[in-house]
Amino acid sequence: MSLETFIAGSEDRLVDGLHFGSRNTASYVTARRAATFHPSSASSWKPSGVRLMRFNLADVAGWLDGGTMRLIFTITNNKANGTLQPIVDSPASMLRRARVIANGSAVLEDIEEYGRVYQLFSEMLPAQRRYNNISESWGATNATGTLNGPFTVDAIPADSSRQVCVTLLSSFLSQGKMVPLSMVPITIELELDDADAAFSSSGNDWEITRPRLVADVCDLDQSLANSYAKHILDGRSLPFFAHGLYSLRAAVPSGSSLFSLPIARGFTRLSTIYVTLWDGATGKWVNSFTHPNAGESNIEVNDQLQWNITLGAERWPTFNCESTQESFYRLRLAQQAHQGTDSFGISSYDYRNTKFVIGQSFEKAPGGGAHTGVNTRSGAQLTLNFRNLGATTLVHVVLHYEQIVNVSAAGAEVLD
């Protein structure tokens, strides 16, 4: 057996430069509209008044391209003196909770601590992506940026307003398939957090006006639209493969050297877990991911944090993760499995201080196959175990899992 033998068994195909066949067309998409959806009530929203924004997304014949959706609103700094200085990457971190509901009752997504979750995943984007994103949201000053701090957010002057554009963190809207709004009417609920949550200092006073969701909606040829309707009426379904995010936090008893956090909720396929910590004193909850050894030299005698995750008799990693450097390595593996890249703009110094994130992937074949996470609904208890948390007062956990939204004539059903 030789290399020539294998080469001889290969099939010749025309390279792209020599292939002159026509490309696939999509004449069945008859129109693409830039649609706008307005909230169902109120004219202004603020933490001391109406906090909940509710948008009903419905269309007689349109198919929603969820990846194009943005939330646009005007934020006004009501203070007569003093600027409104954001401390987060996006106005999305002004939200405490976000829910996506189908057919009025099926909860597709319900993310608590939404502002912190959003900031967490924004921090783990490549620096260039964050640099571009800020132009769409707050806007930035002309201050020189770095890889871990690619911009300085532009403050809103006293008694002034700014219109911002927000990309929502939603696994269902970004799952890649268009959503038939005539079959799956969507309701999006966004709840505001406290006035000071996403801004520096305290005593901030602001309000939101003219909020609306904008997105592209496609119209299909009537015959194709009828075939989808017939498919549903014949008792079959349309499955939307997506991922979900479940967020929870827990208080750490003062003086505890050992802390275990059992996760009550189970998932058919759990893909990844992210954990962040807060000491209650550094910065604010929304954007401070403190390391237990923050401010200390990066030497072994100071690097005391250890952690592992257990599911019944199984354990990740097999032996405790015992160093900041190993935690960063496992976070990169988790990001590679989750996002397809292990590159993000967190410097080594920041990771050891205020941007410390623990990540653990449970995928058996990351990138090589679907549904290879672990089943936490088999009766075994999922538990996060920590040693030497130092001054940590709160632990925040984000679980990333697989789900299917099954659309049929009976409505939408969430399988997770």
**Biggest sheet, open or closed, and with what strands and sense?**
6 strands, antiparallel
Radius of gyration: 24 Å
User: How much beta, percentage-wise?
Assistant: 35-45%
Span between N and C termini?
A: 48 Å
Overall shape: it is globular
Query: Strand tally, please?
Result: 19
Helix content: 10-25%
Order of helices and strands: HEEEEEEHHEEEEHEEEEEHHEEEE
Tally of contiguous helical segments? 6
Structural class: mainly beta
Indicate the mean pLDDT.
Answer: 93
Low-pLDDT parts are none
What does this structure look like?
With 416 residues, this protein is mainly β. It has 6 helices and 19 strands. The strands form 4 sheets. Strands 1, 2, 4, 7, 8 and 10 form a 6-stranded antiparallel beta sheet that branches. Strands 11, 13, 16, 18 and 19 form a 5-stranded antiparallel beta sheet that branches. Strands 3-9-5-6 form a 4-stranded antiparallel beta sheet, with helices on one face. The radius of gyration is 24 Å and the shape is globular. The N and C termini lie far apart (48 Å). The mean pLDDT is 93.
What is the strand and helix layout of this fold?
Blueprint: H1 3-8, E1 29-37, E2 44-45, E3 52-57, E4 62-77, E5 95-102, E6 106-112, H2 114-123, H3 127-136, E7 161-166, E8 179-180, E9 186-192, E10 206-220, H4 222-233, E11 238-251, E12 258-263, E13 270-278, E14 306-311, E15 314-321, H5 324-339, H6 348-351, E16 357-361, E17 382-387, E18 394-408, E19 411-415
Which descriptors would you attach to this protein?
6 helices, mainly beta, 19 strands, six-stranded antiparallel sheet, 416 residues
